[in-house]
Amino acid sequence: MVNRRIAEILRNGQPDESLVVQGWVRTKRELKGFAFIEVNDGSSLANLQAVINQDLPDYEAIIKQINTGASVEVAGVLVASQGKGQRIELQAETVKVYGEADPETYPLQKKRHSFEFLRTIGHLRSRTNSFGAVFRVRNACSAAIHQFFQERGFLWVHTPIITASDCEGAGELFSVTSLNLKNVPRTENQEIDYSQDFFAKPTYLTVSGQLEAEVMAMAFSNVYTFGPTFRAENSNTSRHLAEFWMVEPEMAFCDLEGDMDLAEAFLKYIFNFVLEKCPEDMEFFNQRIDDTVLATAENIVNNQFERLTYTDAIKLLEKADFKFEYPVSWGLDLQSEHERYLAEQLFKKPVIVTDYPAQIKAFYMRLNDDEKTVRAMDILAPKIGEIIGGSQREERLDVLERRVVAQGMKPEDLWWYLDLRRYGTVPHAGFGLGFERLVQFMTGMGNIRDVIPFPRTPQNAEF
Ligand code: 4AD
Ligand code: MG
């Protein structure tokens, strides 16, 4: 008999088809002479209902073994369902229980559990409707990202996890060197003697693959990264993770306009893709998590994003009829409340803010003629705030060297990066999309810890 996934059976299955399904039991209902079990294999939100008749050999023993959470294999024949809520069901001919789940201790029961509680059982929470839907949508977003770039001839490049440079210059680095500290002799004042270290210099987990992506763009024109990045920001918020995934395209012969155009087309493409591939999951989010999810998705797909400069954004915020917690004035970075005000209240759609003050942005952003602002762009999303950060890069060697020094970095540490400006430099631009913030935006999930299977946050790396 053919082994089939439940999503496909629910879509295409016809009465009289014989098949086998394998999955985990969501619920069991015992009635007179038979029992219903709902089986889920992760392929869809909906379960397949299997009917087990008491004339099955060992009926009593099998039914006793089957509880919520048990793993089963059911072979049988599809029949049209008499009951409400499903078109077809599986009439069981054989049932094999792989592993029982003791109802006394199995933490997932039929009732709705809070996300806080589910975070304490991260190894089991993927078996719930909400997390099933989140991780299917997360997967669809990944597929959309690759498809978008591959269709446009971008090369997927793999940038290192271990690096010696702090791309963002924010000092939020996890040290790798400490892994083998016990082999590293220390000098008298407890300074680490890096000459003895594995890499013979301080190394860190990468905060961004951008600098290496720039290297690759200077040979392949258009490239992208999609990989994990790490930040030791001690911000215990619903928008920050210590380990998150970032997508970073980098384009040679491209300016900030081209960068913004790509970013807008990119977000629209992903939303379209997910609406098409995961309609049931998106409907579920709209019903159960946030009733603006579908309207937001439509809005993204159909409307142009707003574009304005940082200077104009500050003017609007200064005029705003809204009490902000943090001050607003030219030169200060936008806080998430300001970002959300612009996207959520004022424009009611994503907003691209450009040309931020140089002193609050990274060293690699291209300096404008005013010498005060840089060719930066952040995309701000309703409910999330910053979802994308990008810029046109500084391609002029002398200006870049000045900026490196001004930000307290040593040009000799970045000799290879500066070389790109020595040999065949071109205007180029790129951006970074926070992948989990995208999944949050897409699903309406309130906390970023609930859109990644194994969240890493301060005080938390359990599973
Ligand atoms: O704005 P960021 O710091 O930009 C960069 O790293 C650039 N090198 C990107 C580039 O131009 N290639 O980070 C990019 C995005 C942010 O807009 C945000 O969505 C996400 O990464 N992000 C985080 N997501 C979750 N947890 C954190 N701690 C994050 N920090 C940044
Ligand atoms: Mg940023």
UniProtKB/TrEMBL annotation:
Matching CDD domains: AsxRS_core, EcAsnRS_like_N
Compartment(s) where it occurs, according to its Swiss-Prot or TrEMBL record: Cytoplasm
InterPro entries recorded: Aa-tRNA-synt_II, aa-tRNA-synth_II, aa-tRNA-synth_II/BPL/LPL, Asn-tRNA-ligase, Asp/Asn-tRNA-synth_IIb, NA-bd_OB-fold, NA-bd_OB_tRNA
Keywords (A to Z) from UniProt: Aminoacyl-tRNA synthetase, ATP-binding, Cytoplasm, Ligase, Nucleotide-binding, Protein biosynthesis
Keyword Nucleotide-binding belongs to the record: yes
Similarity comment: family membership: Belongs to the class-II aminoacyl-tRNA synthetase family.
Record's subunit section: Homodimer.
Record's protein name: Asparagine--tRNA ligase
Source organism (scientific name): Anabaena azotica FACHB-119
Name of the gene this protein is made from: asnS
